[in-house]
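During the second half of the funding period, the structural biology subgroup turned its attention to how the target accommodates small molecules. The most pressing case was adenosine-5'-diphosphate, which had performed well in the primary screen but for which no bound structure existed. We therefore specified the complex as follows and requested a full 3D prediction, including the ligand pose.
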Amino acid sequence: MIKEAKNKLNNVFGFEDFRPLQEDIIQQVMDKKDALVIMPTGGGKSLCYQIPALLFDGLTIVVSPLISLMKDQVEQLLQYDIPAIYLNSTLTPKEYEENVQKVKNGEVKLLYMAPETLMMDKTRELLSNQHVDLFTIDEAHCISEWGHDFRPDYRELTKVRKDFPEATCLALTATATPRVREDIKDILKFGDSDTFLASFDRKNLFLGVAEKDDPLEQTLDFLYTRKKQSGIIYCFSRKQVEELYVELKKEGHSVKPYHAGLSKNVRNRNQEAFIRDNIQIIVATIAFGMGIDKPNVRFVMHYDLPKNIESYYQQIGRAGRDGLRADCMVLYDRSDKQKIQYFINQKEGREKEVAEKHLKEMLKFMETDKCRRKPLLGYFGETYEKDECNMCDNCLSVDAEVEDLTVQSQKLLSCIVRTDEEFDAYYIADILRGSTKEKVLENGHDELPTYNIGNEWAKEQWILLARMLVKQGYLERKEQHGALSITDQARAVLDGKENVFGVLDRKDTVVGDNAIERTTSEVENNYDKDLFEQLRNKRKELADQQSVPPYAIFPDTTLMEMSYYFPQSKDNLVPIYGVGSVKLKKYATDFLAIINKYCRDHDIEEKTDLIEKKKEKLEESGEKFERIGRAYNDGKSIDHLAEQYGVKNVTIINHLKTYLKEGNELRPEGIVEASSLSTRKRQEVLEIMNEVPTHMLRKVYTELDKSVGYNELRVMQLYYMAQQNDS
Ligand code: ADP
Ligand code: ZN
């Protein structure tokens, strides 16, 4: 059973291995045992019911609380040619009726619905005539009043469940709170043995907290090293959202705001723009995020202190669903405490007590100097065993040594003087690094003696130095435009009478290079960024044509692997992450064209050896008959396959037979090719096979007066079976 699941994982979804627990959960479901799955966001819950849905004969129902989630899931499944639909109020009556018809005709494998749709008489009536194998409750925490998004409708599900006595029930949630988990178990009557609890450690999330001193500048610094990446910035208030949005917009960032004060229309539009990669950044209140399945959110920044650990965890959970590294940063102002305390003080009794406890736990996380994963996971009842995670600021903060930064400071200060103290750190850094930006050239600043004298440092380092000089009193920052001016103290530095010492504190803004090396994979570090960009554009174009989000076409990891392995043929695309058979058919030509051209133009060779290794790994996990069956259907002859695998024809025929029996189809014409019998003789054999059970070759042999040998009969037997299957 689980082999078939693995095949689906490889061939349909194009993934190599199961993630932790997926295999056990699928096995449980296929054994028709109920299960409760508690797994963090990005853990891979969807496959736990999508793969069984493909393996079961009957229908899989998925109850989901949000229309946007259903739509997203269905769009993604349709990209794999998996027949999935939803029934909800956004459909026109005609579409609704069409979908109902599809269910009646048994053309659907997965049916998504909100609980209220499921509860309707007409739905229950429709489903009473269907064979339902799997009843999935997604976002199962909605069933609990203790959860943050309790939905009374969810309570009714326990009743509806009885409508499908044959169906296995699979409930899924990412809730981290023990109390809610227990509640779900009680309500749905799950035992401990049916509960699959994954670790809530999201290893690919980098956790950081920075002292909030100049939040706008800090945010700009943070964004500076994250150009073209998608991210969310959470603010405490609507007002703050609007202000920050305007500032970021002014700096040329691709950004939209989101909060409950905006009309529903505007909110939807902005959310959609984010999901479709039309914009990179969303500045939002906590109103944003429910129903966002976007896998390539590369950062989540908290401009203000989150309300409590739970919401913090939930919000950072939206980052890095694809498993690639993502950065989470909180700007922590100790006085934010008071803001929250103010709200707490308006509460009373038990409620106040709880809120106070939450705040305390939150501060524990903010103020620790140990690994941040300890207080975070500890809050959810999990012990983080390791001393260091290497993926939080505390684990990476090496005791940097104080350096003499006089020379660089002189360069920076003198550049500020020469531009009449009218510009901000970004612009000064541009001049120092010899930027050819329009503004620099227009102002004639490429003529300055300080132009292009600072290439020893990256732009971000110059910006950090400027910040340090402000802190040490050498520079002042004018409120409005961030223009820098020098103080008297700076004159001494310029005159060579005073040296500047300091540590370029990189911890609170950007993550050092060595951190990235230690925590990301070879592919993530070394893929070709330019090719990636071209593939990304292609993906966007294809996505827009079909009105789906880009990640429904391929996730970022796929494009990254393409830009690392440089596959040059369809065959070599197969082992790439996320390339299953259907997507291969749909998109190979488009993407190969770009890769091929790029490699030609830049004299780059395919990493053939590595691709072969990847292939071997896949093949080891797949079944031989599967590979042979597929190769055969792709046009390889039986002779060819026998030679390729160094076996006799009859062995190949046996594999193909197994392939057929496993419910696959074979192209019959290629089988006849392998027969050396005359057309008339073949006809005669087939007629006899029509009379006697096909597996009894001995009988056929005698009926034919032993005039046709067994090997020939085997070929004809396969042909006979393939045709029967075909019709
Ligand atoms: P969840 O619902 O738990 O938040 P998803 O089901 O959306 O997580 O999965 C998160 C991402 O991980 C998706 O992009 C999905 O395609 C990918 N994924 C899931 N399982 C695997 C796997 N076994 N191998 C590779 N990628 C996977
Ligand atoms: Zn750590």
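Two results from this model are relevant to the next phase. The first strand starts at residue 35 and ends at 38. The chain has five domains: 2-197, 205-396, 403-502, 522-621, 624-726.
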